[in-house]
Structures are given as C-alpha cells and as structure tokens.
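INFO  loader      accepted 1 record
INFO  loader      residues=270
INFO  predictor   begin
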Amino acid sequence: MLPVEGICMEMCPKEEIMMVLTVKNVPFNIVYDFIDDRLNSIRQDATIQAVSNQDWMTILPPIIRFHAYAAHKCYEYDVNTFDPFLNMKHFHDSIFKIVKILSEDLGESTNELCSEMVSLLIVTNLGDYNVLQQALPFISKKNALIKVAILLSLSIMNGNFGQLFETYHTFPAMHQCVICVQLPMLRKNILKSMCMGFNCKNNYFPISILSKMLLHNEPRETIKECQHYGLTVVGDKVELSKSSFNNEADELHLKKEIKFKVNISTILNT
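INFO  predictor   done
INFO  writer      dumping tokens
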C-alpha cells in the first residue's frame, strides 16, 4: 500500500487513484507503483467478471492515459526504479483491446473516444506497418486526428522526418507524451538524414532552426546532441557532414518538456 497521508482506502478505486495521482509528498515512481497495481487489479477483476464491451470502454481509457503519461513522466528514471517496457506492455494490452472493440462496431468509430484511442495507438508506434494496418479501417470515417497520426507514421516510415516538426504541436498532450519517448531514435535519424542530404564541406546549418526540428527545449540541447554524434559546432551553427556523423553512438536521451494546460488528473479522467 502507498503510505500517503489522507488517502482513504475504502473509497471507490477511481476516486482513490485520481487523489493519489496528485500527491506531491512522495516520489512519482512510488505513486506509479501504487496506481499501476490498482489498475492491474481492476483489469483482472473485469476480465474475471467478463464485463461487457460497453463497460470496457469506460474502464480502459483512464488506464491507457495513465500509462501514456507515466512513459513521459518517468522517462529519466533508472530502469530499476521504473520499468518503461512493462509500462508500455500494460499500455498496449489495454489500447489494443479497446481498438479491437471499436473495430467490431465501426459505426461508432467517429466519436471522440475512438479518435483519441486509435490516433494514440498510431503515434505510440510511429512507422510501425502492422499498427497502421489496424488503423486503416478508421480513416474512412474522415477523422482528422487519426488521419494526421497516420500521415505522420507513414512519413516516419518513409524517412520524411520533417512531418514530425510540422504536426507535433497539433497533437493533444497525451499524444505528445508517447511521441517524446521516441524522440531519441527520431532525432538521431533526423540528424543522420540531414548530414546525408546537406553533406558539403563547410556547409553550416543554424542551431536555432535545427533545435526546432529536433523538438529540443533549448538550443544548448541541440549543441549537445550534435556534438554527441561527432558533428562540429561553430558558434550558433553546426557543420552537417556525412563523414563526421557517428552512427555507432548510442541515442542521446534528452527529455522534452510538455506543458499541461489543466490538472493531469482531469486529463486522465476525461
């Protein structure tokens, strides 16, 4: 049990979880462990009771949003403190189930929840052909958010990384959370692609523009990333050189900050 003062364990699970989520006097990984345990219990109980699809549509969205949020919130935690792979397994188990339910009744697939869930699945797996195939039945409903997510994923699959910068800020906060987790891989590919496309001796590119393209919080992070991959930075510019780019370097994990306009418990419980 989470030793959080003022939490009544007799209250309903949903209220309890939302109250614990806002606790500030303990590390978030402790909060995460408590909530994750409660959510797993709820899913197991629902499975044992063989609840209806309609009930699952109520149960699963807050669970999915929580794991999406946690992926970003705990991004810099040590793997012994927070297991990102297990977190995403719980995320995928839940979201694949809800998308399957939605696919069985495409007549309901134009609603807001469907739009959120299907597009969230896509942007969590950018460039994944199998996920795109599962999402295609929903695009016929002319859902704008799903269409943008599919176009971004297709662009990533085809090496067109410019689409990331153009569309990232159009996505809701939960979508940005799961996109941010993929940024180390995406940034490396963007830099590598630019070094090949702009490769020319003494060809310098402005750090300010590159910083926006890589979705960094500030230019000094861009400089750090460029230097990490062996590129030469001179003042406020970087030399994009194919021969200098160190493809063997590990991905650099720099966390992208996300500003939530409302309380996170409100977002998860939408």
